[in-house]
Structures are given as structure tokens and as C-alpha cells.
Write a structure and sequence with these properties.
By secondary structure, the chain is mostly helical. 55% of the residues lie in helices and 4% in strands.
């Protein structure tokens, strides 16, 4: 029977892994067949992985919220192994954690939780095994061939609507660009409307993330659930001009790209709540008050516009930073359903 309590204490309490334990884990990993990993040896790596995550957060490579999600995901797997996993492995005659073990865990989660939660926890387990294999502490990753829990109904339509072209232009006309606040807000709105950045990506962006490449202005953003920053190309002239206008006001000092201008928090990173509030404020000023239209609607509008104007699906996926092309296809299906519906082909005789 696997005794997991002591290892979990190290997991939550920040217990450091000794050099001898690492050596032992390396030795164990060297004898692990490609079909699975020894769980006892794997457990010895947990506290070291936690320390590695903390280091990446401190270096700005990983968001603290992602660190928390990853840790929670592995914690869920540890708890399941203690309560049900080891018993299941014994019944199946398994002595290694393999892809079937992970699938059994996912199946158990799906009985109680929504697919979105299951996939978030799976991302944590994937991150752990990916790190262990990358550091040559384990010889294989049992999550490599695992697909996430399918979210039913997501291929039909989005719950949040895109802004229309007219609404986007009306919103962009609202900030007073002659003021510092207006220049900042206009730059944020243009980023969302022309590059499909998320509000959280705007919040996390630093001045050092903005650079020029191949005669283009490029912003590297830490996307949703991502480990590394990805490039966002600021190709539209209106967005490019807006960014340079804000930089002229902001200056070239390091730190947050978008900062607060209030007396209480001047110079500090603009909060996610403040970003969403200013977007909604400009929506209201533009008369955009339809239910289902949120800050995400600017991102939705940018992706939909690229599709309508003929951008290939792979390029749209890259712009949207979707991990799966299936997510991008949702936008294609949604646009095609309205703009090119089957209903227009119904004909009961010579167009009559």
C-alpha cells in the first residue's frame, strides 16, 4: 500500500528535496519503462517542482495564478491516488502510473466536476510531468497522449458576443487622446480590438515585453494557462500609433506597461479590475449595453474580423493563442452559420 501522507506534507509545507533524494529519483527514473513511471520515485520530486514553479513566478516567466492552478491540479491527483488510485492500480495489477491511470483519474473527476475544472487540473499534472521529463528526472510523461474532458455545446456558440464593426469604432472614439489617461486607455482598447489580447494579458504586460521585430511592433504576452510568453503582432496602423502615443506619455522606465494614474496608486501596475472597468465605461459611453457583451467581446470581434477578411485558420489560431485548433474552429463555425447560412439555399423552384 502506498503511504502518501509524508510526501503530501512536503508538498504543502515546502519541504526541500535533498541531493540524495534527487540522486535516488534519477536512479529510479533510469529503470522506468516507457509505458509508465514509478509513483514512489515521482512523489520525491513534488517539493522540488513546487520550488521550481516559485522560481519561475519570481522571474516573471509564470503568472502566480497559473502556479496556483498547477499546484492545485497535482494536489488533486495526489489526493485521488491516496483515496482511490492505488486501490485501482492494485486491482488492475499495475505497479506503474501510466496513461490509463491518468484516464481513470479524469473519469472520476468528471463524475463530480465540470469539464473546464477537470481540464485545469489536468494542466497542472501535465506541467509536473513535463518538467520532470525535461529535467531528466523521469523518463516518460504519462499525460502525453491524454485528451482533456470534452466540453459539450462549445462548438455551437459563445456565451459572450462579439462587438459589431460599428460598435468597435464607436468605443475607440470615446477616449480623450489629448490626456494621459485617454492615451493609455485608447492604447488598451486598440490592443484588444486589433490584436485580440485578453484583459489579463494587458494586465501582465511589462515595458520590456514590447519590442520591434522585422519592422513590426511586437508585444510578448503571457497567455491564459501558458508557461511562456508569446508574440502579439501590432500590425494595424491605428494600434501601432496608439501604442507609440502611450509610450510618449509613459516614458521608457521598466515595469508594468500600463500603470495607474490615480493619486493612491500612481505608477503601479493597472489592476485587472481597473482594466475591465475602463472598458465597460467606454462601452457605456458608446451606447454598447447589450447583455452578453463584455471585455472579452473586443477579443471576439478581432478574431471574427480576421476570419471574415480571409485569414487562414492557422494564422487565426496563432493570433488568438489557442492551444487547440478546435477552439479556433468555434469562431469559424459561428461566423459561417450567420453569414453563409443553409437557409439561403432553400429554393422551391427557380428562386420563388
Amino acid at each position: 500500500m502506498l503511504i502518501i501522507a509524508d510526501t503530501q506534507q512536503g508538498f504543502s509545507g515546502g519541504e526541500k528535496m535533498t541531493g540524495r533524494a534527487i540522486t535516488r529519483a534519477r536512479g529510479d527514473a533510469a529503470h522506468v519503462p516507457s509505458r509508465g513511471v514509478d509513483w514512489q520515485g515521482t512523489l520525491a520530486l513534488v517539493s522540488t517542482w513546487k520550488a521550481a514553479l516559485a522560481q519561475r513566478v519570481a522571474a516573471g516567466e509564470l503568472a502566480a495564478t497559473t502556479q496556483e492552478t498547477y499546484s492545485r491540479g497535482l494536489g488533486r491527483f495526489l489526493a485521488w491516488m491516496e483515496s482511490d488510485g492505488t486501490a485501482w492500480m492494485a486491482e488492475e495489477g499495475k505497479n506503474l502510473v501510466d496513461d490509463d491511470t491518468v484516464r481513470e483519474w479524469i473519469g472520476a473527476l468528471r463524475q463530480r466536476y465540470k469539464p473546464a475544472s477537470v481540464n485545469a487540473w489536468l494542466a497542472g499534472l501535465r506541467a509536473f510531468f513535463r518538467w520532470a521529463v525535461g529535467k531528466h528526472l523521469l523518463s516518460c510523461n504519462p499525460t502525453t497522449d491524454i485528451k482533456g474532458a470534452r466540453r459539450t455545446g462549445t462548438k455551437k456558440r459563445h456565451s459572450r458576443k462579439a462587438l459589431t464593426d460599428t460598435e468597435v469604432l464607436l468605443v475607440l472614439d470615446q477616449p480623450d487622446q489629448t490626456t494621459t489617461a485617454g492615451a493609455r486607455d485608447y492604447a488598451i482598447l486598440c490592443l484588444m480590438a486589433f490584436t485580440a489580447v485578453r484583459s489579463v494579458e494587458v494586465h501582465r504586460a511589462d515595458r520590456e515585453d514590447l519590442t520591434t521585430q522585422a519592422n513590426r511592433l511586437v508585444l510578448y504576452v503571457l497567455g491564459k494557462g501558458q508557461d511562456e510568453k508569446e508574440p502579439v503582432v501590432i500590425a494595424h496602423p491605428r494600434a501601432e500609433e496608439a501604442m507609440y502615443a502611450w509610450l510618449a506619455q509613459r516614458g521608457n522606465r521598466p515595469g508594468a506597461l500600463f500603470t495607474s494614474l490615480s493619486d493612491r496608486s500612481r505608477g503601479k501596475r493597472l489592476s485587472l479590475q481597473a482594466i475591465r472597468a475602463l472598458v465597460k465605461r467606454y462601452y457605456a459611453a458608446a451606447g454598447v449595453d447589450e447583455d452578453g457583451k463584455s471585455t472579452h467581446s473586443l477579443r471576439h470581434a478581432a478574431i471574427s474580423s480576421a476570419i471574415r477578411h480571409g485569414a487562414p485558420i492557422q494564422k487565426v489560431q496563432s493570433m488568438a493563442r489557442h492551444v487547440s485548433i478546435d477552439t479556433t474552429m468555434i469562431y469559424y463555425h459561428e461566423n459561417d452559420r450567420i453569414e453563409n447560412p443553409a437557409e439561403q439555399y432553400v429554393d422551391y423552384g427557380n428562386g420563388k
